[in-house]
TrEMBL record:
It comes from the Bacteria. This is Spore photoproduct lyase family protein. Keywords: Lyase. Residues 1-39 are annotated as: Disordered. Pfam families: SPL. InterPro entries: SPL, Uncharacterised_Spl-rel. GO terms for molecular function: lyase activity.
Length: 394
């Protein structure tokens, strides 16, 4: 369990077994020579920062200063709290400006609550995120719900405190005694619950620091799902301690729903490079969208994976399958800017609604529809990619 540090804890558990000194903030000079992807035109199309809203302490921190220096042209706007920036986080009036805000605005804040939460699906634990928000704009994304729908990336600059927290948690767990579907021998920590770590790596060293930290913790493994191919991550040295989960869906669905992401084929084609660089590469089949012809589209996707992925990827891969969940408020927002997406993902005749803890209505496929669809995906995977174990499906 995630126990807070207490006076009675043994010293090794309080201070961890592995040093932090050479984990944080790799000097830029130690990077390999040559142009970085993050300075490319393609990266600038994803993120071209013109304004940075920053909590004063975050802007003054070492990580904050690095980020501000990276965008010398950007206007720096002080803010009391990364949670309260009405012009960014409100819904009304922002739908049309949504993508422009995501691609031009950054927020810097300090993460106050460093909680490690149990999970049991994608990972054993959900780590406190080093960022929230995203520069991409998937039509089904649940990430914006807490900060309103414009929701640009907030980078948390107190990465040292976050890694200290993780180190204490990893140390307190000790070795994993029983294999489970998350991993046979390592505790898996999801480091990207509300963000995409591959995009975040365009902005700061937070992702690199986390990847590096997990190389020091032999009982633990980092994990994050991504829809963005960032070749700069290949320059890190994860030594098998970071699991990257490429999110995949049929290309036609992706073109409609995965706004601003890397093309699906690019994600598949990148898998071998990431394995070679020392990542574990899994696949996140998510969300599975039921629409006319969806079974054939998934069969084609899986057949393509079987055709193009080399043995090096197949031998270590696993997948998770997650059926679409949607949300009434998000549906209303999408109708203002991307109604054709809603034709695919708002299917009341197949879906049921359930009120969430925050009072909004979440929508998911009816139980029988979902159960049948999950079985269909399992059958397709068994048929077309028999080398691909499914870790979980729901
Ligand atoms: S990439 Fe992930 S976090 Fe970003 S918009 Fe898409 S679903 Fe949301």
């Amino acid at each position: 369990m995630d126990t807070p540090r207490s006076a009675g804890e043994p010293e090794a558990a309080q201070d961890g077994l592995f040093g932090l000194e050479d984990v944080l903030g790799e000097p830029e000079a130690s990077r390999p020579a040559g142009p970085l992807f993050r300075d490319s035109e393609e990266a600038r199309r994803m993120l071209s920062v013109r304004r940075i809203h920053a909590e004063p302490a975050a802007a003054a921190s070492p990580r904050g200063r690095q980020i501000v220096a990276r965008y010398p042209e950007a206007e720096l706007v002080p803010t009391d709290s990364h949670w309260r920036i009405p012009e960014l986080h409100g819904n009304q009036g922002n739908a049309e400006r949504w993508v422009r805000i995501k691609s031009t605005v950054l927020v810097l804040g300090e993460k106050k609550t460093l909680t490690v939460r149990p999970n049991g699906r994608s990972a054993d634990w959900i780590a406190p995120g080093a960022a929230n928000g995203c520069a991409m704009a998937c039509a089904y994304c649940y990430v914006p719900r807490r900060k309103g729908y414009a929701n640009p990336i907030t980078v948390f600059t107190n990465i040292d405190a976050l890694i200290h927290r993780l180190r204490r948690h990893v140390t307190a767990q000790g070795p994993k005694k029983e294999p489970n579907q998350c991993d046979p021998s390592s505790w898996v920590y999801d480091i990207g619950e509300n963000n995409d770590c591959a995009v975040d790596a365009l902005i700061s060293e937070n992702t690199a620091d986390l990847v590096r930290a997990f190389t020091r913790w032999p009982t633990a493994k980092a994990s994050f799902a991504t829809k963005f191919v960032n070749p700069d991550l290949l320059l890190l040295d994860p030594r098998g301690r970071t699991r990257l989960r490429f999110s995949l869906m049929p290309a036609d669905d992706s073109r409609l729903l995965d706004i601003r992401t890397s093309p699906v084929q690019q994600r598949i084609d990148a898998a071998a490079d990431f394995v070679e660089a020392g990542y574990e590469v899994h696949f996140n089949f998510s969300p599975v969208v039921i629409r006319p012809g969806w079974e054939q589209a998934w069969a084609q996707l899986l057949q393509n994976m079987d055709d193009v992925l080399p043995r090096s990827v197949k031998d270590q891969a696993a997948a998770e399958v997650i059926m679409l969940t949607h949300n009434r408020d998000l549906h209303d927002v999408n109708m203002a800017w991307h109604p054709s997406a809603e034709d695919a993902i708002w299917r009341p005749e197949l879906q049921q609604a359930k009120r969430s803890e925050n009072g909004s209505w979440n929508v998911r496929y009816r139980n029988a529809v979902k159960a049948e669809a999950v079985e269909t995906v399992r059958r397709l995977v068994h048929t077309y990619t028999p080398w691909l174990p499914i870790r979980y499906a729901f």
